[in-house]
Amino acid sequence: xxxxxxxxxxxxxxxxxxxxxxxxxxxxxxxxxxxxxxxxxxxxxxxxxxxxxxxxxxxxxxxxxxxxxxxxxxxxxxxxxxxxxxxxxxxxxxxxxxxxxxxxxxxxxxxxxxxxxxxxxxxxxxxxxxxxxxxxxxxxxxxxxxxxxxxxxxxxxxxxxxxxxxxxxxxxxxxxxxxxxxxxxxxxxxxxxxxxxxxxxxxxxxxxxxxxxxxxxxxxxxxxxxxxxxxxxxxxxxxxxxxxxxxxxxxxxxxxxxxxxxxxxxxxxxxxxxxxxxxxxxxxxx
Length: 286
Fold this sequence. Notes:
It is a single chain. With 286 residues, the chain is α/β, with parallel strands linked by helices. It is 40% helix and 24% strand. The protein is globular.
């Protein structure tokens, strides 16, 4: 790129800088999108850049593959019911150890190494997320929780001081319930985005977005109106694991978040491309 090209890039990005400076963006960083170390470091640099220019970023992370790996090491089989991890007491211990003890601190470390100021916490800290036991069609899922309350005060305080909060999705029970619960990271991130009145909710995952033809990456649907979602599910355009991700986007929209996105975390700097260019990336649900 010559100087003229660079100037055009910066000129294109400037209006977006103005739009998002001082605003909150909630990014859900998916477990499968976290597997490549080089890409992970690139994502952290992008988040530090956003924080440096004054965008308030909250990073909510999953960790399914890491949990699977740890369960395998201790000789315990992973069990899923309707796409949700069955979480007995022993599995819950592993979930807390991996999410809040290992992955959360690794992400904070990468952000610090990239020049950012980050603080790791879970939904338990300051009662950030309170949950109740989830039951799906009468099935007992163990310590899988459904978020019933988000108390974002701790996040607001950290953001106002210039920190990047990094949230692992373990929640505490309600006042009469001493248990901790395993929370789906997509759902938790959507709830946090609503509570913070975020300007944008972004799910980074390991797919390009919503594809009209699952076998053709060039069939990406770049923009979907929420009114079109039911018919797209009925016809199978939105199917399988994409349905809960879309449902999280719809929940964020319903709660007042203006823009929601599903983007490919495997693409270097996909977050910056989405936020600061006219072309965007992935699928936007509006």
